[in-house]
Amino acid sequence: MKDLTIDYALRATWQAVARMYNEEAKNFETTMAVGFTLLSIDPKTGTPSTALGPKMGMEATSLSRILKSMEEKGLIERKPNPNDGRGVLIHLTDFGLEKRVDSKNVVLRFNEVVRENISDDKLKAFFEVTTTINKLIADKEIYTKNTTN
User: Fold this and answer.
1) CB of 34 within 8 A of CB of 25?
2) What 3-state class would DSSP assign to 89?
3) Burial label, 89 (beta-carbon count in 10 A; 0-12, 13-18, 19+)
4) How far apart are alpha carbons 79 and 93 in whole angstroms?
5) CA distance 80 to 122
6) CB 3.0–4.6 Å: which of 42, 64, 103, 116 could bond 35 by disulfide?
7) Which residues pair with 80 in a beta bridge?
8) Confidence at 135, pLDDT banded by 50, 70, 90
9) How far apart are CA 68 and CA 65, in angstroms?
10) Reduced to 3 states, what is the DSSP secondary structure of residue 84?
């Protein structure tokens, strides 16, 4: 692509990161999605199942499949939410806590190597750019729904 677009750069980079994480996850007999889920669950108090999807930016259907798989592998357990009788808390098992440490170490290694190769000023600019893009999207300043047709 002669003129690299912002969305292309974001998408291509994220796809490369996701491939890298999935390749690394295979060494731990898991997937990037499972690792991300392990890191999104509060290791001490658990996380309400209804809060997990929005926290991860995932649809409920996809998350349900991941949680079912994680439960079958003994990584998580579901417990009634003591503050909401209708709700369920997702808790990590001891095995899940071990695998969470593995996931955390993989993410920390990625961050360490990137920080060793990119200056603080460039990383600061990167985070400013991503924050601005997210704000533009959240504030619907890029595309708005045409309600008048």
Assistant:
1) yes
2) strand
3) buried
4) 11
5) 45
6) 103
7) 88
8) very high
9) 5
10) strand
